[in-house]
Amino acid sequence: MPADRLSFRRILVTGVGANPGFGLTRSLQRLGHQVVATDASPLAPGLLLPDTLPRVTPCADDPDYPRAIAGLCRELAIDAVVAGIENDIPPLVAMVPELDAIGVRVWLPDPDSVRTCIDKAEFHDVLTAHGIATPRTYRPGEIDRVPDGRELVVKPRRGHGAQGVHFCGRREHARVLCELAPESVVQERVHGTEFTADCLVDRTGRASAILRRRDLVKAGLASVSTTFDDSAVRGVVVETLDAVRAQGVCCVQGFIPHDGTVTITELNVRVAGGFPLTEAAGADLVGQMVNGLFGLPVDHDRLTYRTRMFLTNYVETLAVGDIAELKRVTVAKGEPS
Q: What CATH class is the domain 113-117+191-306?
C-alpha cells in the first residue's frame, strides 16, 4: 500500500442509485475502505452491492434528512461523508459544522460556490463575468430576447442528470416549456465535441483535470468515452474551477465547437458517472480524493493519465427478486438532535 494511502476508513456515500455514487462505492471498496451505501430508494442498485452497509435515508429535501445522516454517522462511527448526487449536496454543506463537531469529514466548496454550480442561471452569470465562454442563458421572463433562428435547450434551473431537458427551435416552444416547468432556463444549443473533465482541486487551490470525450451520450451519461489531452481545454477548465472556487472532487462539462474554441456548460460538485475511465487511464482520482478528505496532501503526480483509453458500458441487470425479501436494507431514522 502506498505510503500516502490511508488505512481502512468507514465512508458514507449518498445517492448510490445513480452511476456516480455506484461507481464511487466500488472504487472505495477496491481501495480497502468500508462503504455505508445510502439512497432514498430501497431498490437503488448500490444498496445491493456486496460488502456494503446499506441504509435507506429520507430524500434530501425531507426535513428529517439531516437528522438521519447525523444519526447514521454516530451509530456506525462514520469517518467521512461523500455525496454521489447533487440533491444531497446543499443539505450536507449546511451540516458541515455539525458533522465536523462529531469528527466526520466532508470536503465540499463553500455554500456560495455550491449554489453557483447547482444554479445554472447563476453559473452562467459567474462564468460570463470571468470571460469564460458558456451558452447564452435566459430566464423565463427573458425569452423575447432570444435571437430568431437559434436552436434552444430548455432545462431545469437546478436539475441534474439530463432530467427534464428539452430541445426546440422556436421561442414560442421554449415559452410553453417554461410555463410547464417555471423553474427552468433557456440556453442556446452548442454543437461540437462534447467532453468531461474529471477534476480534483486541493486545499491550496491547485487543480488536476483528466479529459474525456463523451463519444456517445445516452440519458445524460457517457456510454462511450475516450481520454484525450488538449492544453487549451485544460486551461479553460482550470479557469472555470477558479471562477467558482471549486474544492475537492468535481467534474466540468463542455463542448469544443468546430472553430476550436471551448464552451463550458456545467460544473458538478461530485464525481462524474464516467470517472472509472479516468482511473483505468492511470489517474488515482478517488485515492487522492480520500487523501485530501482526511487532510493529507494530494499528490498531483498520481493524477496523470494515458490518452486514447476508452470506456464502453451498457445497462446490466444487477438483481431481481421479491421486494419482501429485501431485509438486508435498513431504513435510517436518525437520532434526536
A: alpha beta
The answer to whether 78 and 36 are in contact (CB under 8 A) is: yes
**98-125 tens-digit pLDDT:** 999 999 999 999 999 999 999 999 999 9
pTM of the model as a whole:
0.91
The CATH architecture that domain 10-106+318-331 belongs to is 3-Layer(aba) Sandwich (3.40)
CA distances from 196 to 34, 179, 227, 279 (A): 28, 31, 9, 14
| CATH 3.30.1490.20 domain residues, the chain | 136-188
CA-closest candidate to residue 12, choices 50, 54, 51: 54
Question: Is residue 306 scored above 60 in pLDDT?
Answer: yes
99 burial via Cβ count (<10 Å: 0-12, 13-18, 19+) = buried
Q: What is the pLDDT of residues 151-188, one digit of tens each?
A: 999 999 987 766 778 999 899 999 999 988 778 999 99
Q: Grid coordinates standing for 162?
A: 439530463
Q: CB-based contacts of 222: which residues, under 8 Å, 6+ apart?
A: 196, 212, 214, 215, 216, 272, 273, 274, 311
Residue type, 52: T
